[in-house]
Amino acid sequence: MRAILTVENFASNLVLTFWTPVFVGIFIAILTYALWPRNKAMFDAAARQPLRED
């Protein structure tokens, strides 16, 4: 039996082969940025900002 290429199959294969690794890479980049030691002071200051009284 021969497989028929449909729009749904093409879209599903495109998502699995292209977009999934792209989004995993973006997630890893964001996670690395958030956990980088150089950014700790900036994130600590941002966390204290709502509690500050002006």
UniProtKB/TrEMBL annotation:
It holds the Pfam family FixQ. The chain crosses the membrane at residues 16-36. Keywords: Membrane, Transmembrane, Transmembrane helix. This is Cbb3-type cytochrome c oxidase subunit 3. It comes from Tardiphaga robiniae.
